[in-house]
Structures are given as C-alpha cells and as structure tokens.
Amino acid sequence: MKINLVLTAYFNAEWKYAFDPKLTKKVDFHTSANTVTPVDMMSITGEFVLEYIKAIDTDVLHLPFKQKHLKMTLLVPRKIDGINTLIQNLTMVHMTNLHRRGKARPVNVQLPKFKIDSEDDLKKPMQDLGIHDLFSNVNISKLATSKGPLKVDHIIQRVVLDVDERGAEVAFASRTSLKPQHIVVDRPFLFLVREDNDVYFAGRVNFTP
C-alpha cells in the first residue's frame, strides 16, 4: 500500500510595528529590467536595522515581528536585475554576516504585500540525504488501518506565507534629528523568516506581470 504524507504550514505573524493601511498604494514593481507590474506597496517609517553588504551588492533589512526574537530579513539587490547574481553569490560566509546585529536607525521602508503558496515533493531531497527505507517497505502500520506492506510514495510539503500591514505597535522615528534612510523593495528579492540563527522559511519574491 502506498501512502502520501502531506505537511502543511501556515505563517501569518504580526509585525512588531504596524504598516498603516492608509499609506498602501499601487506602485510599479520591476519583475525584470524591462518589465513592471503594479503591486500594493506598504510604507512605514521607524527605527530598523538596515545594512549594506558590498560583496553581494545588496541591502539587508531586518523587520521584527511581535514574537520575541522573530524577524524577517529582506535581501534586496541594488540592481533591478541583480537577483540571480545575488543567489549565485550568496554563500554561507555571507549568511553568517546576516546575523550581525547592526544599530537601528530611522528608515522609511516601502515593502510590497505578498503571499507565498508553494508545494514541493520532498521525496527526492530526502533520498539525496540518504533516507531510503521510508520509501520502501517500512513498518508504519500505526499510521494506517490496512494490513500488509506499507511504504511512503510521496511527502508533500505545502507552505503558505501571508505578508500584509498588520502589526502590534506604531513605529515612530520622530524622536531623532537624523534624516531617515529609504529602501524601496520594488525588484525581485529574497526573504528569510528567522529566530536568531534558525531559519524557518526562506524564499524569493518576483511578481508575475
């Protein structure tokens, strides 16, 4: 008997600082160097950690969630068509740099609302890691009422990530005389949802026109 296992994760945590829905507006997102598509662009001004990694020509922005230590790290290439180069050059050395804790400073952030809904078959990746018995005859009778040899034919993982304006607090940067920096996420970018050094979700965002 063949069994398909389906793993589903849904993530929609609240930001620590809310985006004001009244500031959300349609803005062109560069899906490539020559094409754009309108997206709902959120906006907020507050004190965030924004760094630049010269080796990969990328701005790195850390947006905290309401949950302690949980944040979304955005990797935004400086070049509109720089996403593929970023992915190719993103080594573990650079990943280590993402965990540096820079100093929060006033930043105006413009970030598109987006929703990731992906589904992947983990059978081959698990086999590549040396897990083979699970996909042949294996004793998992407690998971099924049928008698006879059982095996897992597929392990389907589905992840839904929903990013919008909702947050827990209002961000203010007016207590400082420093002029806010600006980052406009209007090109393909990478994101990581992480807690300290643990990455729970990671992906690439590029809106299809």
UniProtKB/TrEMBL annotation:
Residues passing through the membrane, by range: none
Pfam families: Serpin
GO cellular component: extracellular space
Domain Serpin residues, every copy: 1-208
Gene Ontology molecular-function annotations: serine-type endopeptidase inhibitor activity
Identification of the protein by name: Serpin domain-containing protein
Similarity comment: family membership: Belongs to the serpin family.
